[in-house]
Amino acid sequence: MAILVTGGLGYIGSHTAVELMRAGKEIVVLDNLYNCKKSSYSRIKALTGRDFPFYECDIRDRKGLEEIFAKEKIDCVIHFAGLKAVGESVQKPLEYFDNNVNGTLVLLDVMKRCGCKKIVFSSSATVYGVENKSPLTEDMKVGGVTNPYGRTKYMIECILQDLYKSDNEWSICLLRYFNPIGAHKSGTMGEDPNGLPNNLMPYITQVAIGKLDHLNVYGNDYDTPDGTGVRDYIHVVDLALGHVKAVEKAADESGLFIYNLGTGKGYSVLDVVNAFEKASGVKIKYEICPRRAGDLDTCYSDPSKARRELGWQAERGIVEMCEDSWRWQSNNPNGYPD
Ligand code: NAD
Ligand code: UFG
Q1: Prediction pTM value
Q2: Is ligand 1 within 6 A of the CB of residue 197?
Q3: What is the Cα–Cα distance from 170 to 19, expressed in whole angstroms?
Q4: According to the model, what pLDDT value does residue 197 have?
């Protein structure tokens, strides 16, 4: 039996594919290549020394999905496929609802028809919205989201909860990620954003390599120790290992499970700049700019539920996250080859 990894050539999906295979699992990967390069497939195979089926397919393509389920013995899905840029989602809400929500509905319907009732879903800390105070716990009220991307995550969480209520043979794991950064130790896999990065770490690494002149620090007047925004950065390999534990949980018991995947520690933008300089030996030029619309001052997890119930906790610290991001960027200045 195999695990279908949707969006499995993307940033988090590719690292998870590696850790699943290292844990001895069989995988099948699906991706429409919208936000990744096909060469990530070769890199995963080279790293693990294992072959596995890859399908270029969109999760909204019902016929394509049915063919994959008919051909492969899939008993569980890890569902990463989705669009994820907050700013873009404000400009293109219909594309986000169609891709993320409609795509998930098609996927769930095909799974149901094929008798596959186990799914691990990539949710986000964004569902906690603006009203909850960190450290965020899974029992807090969710849904006060401020942008279409976040709303798609919240809506999919609601759909999955209703699905479980309708049929409790399902095993559904909602994983709320905090801020994934870092890259595989080998320096052969990492985050490869298209165009100008939206997120902090890829922006820093592109300044370090000389592609961008300086980092814009969005605000130094937040209610935080140094005034810059505080987030819970988590190494992408720790995040990937959380998925291995989650699929094992889903395989063992039916139920609706929700876990934060974070470290429980908050670092400010300037803490990350300092850690990166220490890890890379490269000075990062930055300018303080006005706040970015929609940003919170502080967002970090209480990850203790995942530790108690999954036996998982993040092991890699901020300097290691920076070292690995830098190794990836400096070995691959232009990201994955075409
Ligand atoms: P990513 O863009 O690198 O990976 C997503 C992959 O899904 C890409 O390879 C893309 O080509 C593919 N894809 C998109 N739409 C598809 C579709 N309709 N059919 C098939 N494939 C499709 O993003 P990532 O950072 O690896 O994120 C993975 C998941 O985790 C996403 O759902 C994202 O919303 C969620 N998430 C990410 C973060 C983060 O900061 N990176 C935080 C919280 C949640
Ligand atoms: N920041 C800068 N300059 C930049 C980019 C970011 O100062 O060029 C700051 C932000 O203001 C924030 C921190 O760095 O204080 C982190 O910003 P990111 O854009 O890297 O991450 P966010 O916390 O804003 O958002 C991320 C994902 C979202 C997800 C959210 C919660 O991008 O998809 O985490 O999970 F919803």
Answers
A1: 0.98
A2: no
A3: 24
A4: 96
